[in-house]
Amino acid sequence: MAGTGRMTRGAVTRDELKRAVCEAIDRQGNAIIELGERILHHPETGFNETRTAALVAQTMTELGLAPQTGLGLTGVKGRLRGGKPGPVLALLGELDSLPLPMQDYVARYTYPHLEMPGVIILDSDNGRFMNHSLTPNTDFRIFDKGYALVDIAQGEELTCNYHEFDPGFTGFFDAPPAKIVERGRRISARQQRR
What we know:
This protein is α+β, with helices and mostly antiparallel strands. It contains 6 helices and 8 strands. It has 2 domains: 1-97, no CATH class; 100-193, no CATH class.
């Protein structure tokens, strides 16, 4: 591989191949991000991704591939055949997306699960209507439990400090999150059970 840029079967390790792929992605990073942004800002629902499919086909053509379109209605496939036997790579992607109003809903009403990285929670009960307050009348520092801090009268607004269950919440205020979370450190349900 050194000096030639070629990778032939048996001459390249998995780590070297991975490094070469990562370097190629890094070289094309801006173009990849731009393509993703174009798709993101023009969402199309399942089996209606005509604009996105055309953009993907155009991008494949610009890369020297001959795209095959219309697969499963709107699917696109590009195939690059090498001159020698070697590793085979398949790159798959979803073309459909949520409409912008639904993306806004998900962004507004989801928050990260504090004990399961990569998992988000979409609140679909009335808890999503609790308003944020720096001096809330409820406490949600224990992840899966909440309780009232004061007697809450019928009809009184329920408030909570969003930072207690969403550490990434940037807020509606100018103060940074570190200054907003005033009542001590968060205690997960797992920590409480110990």
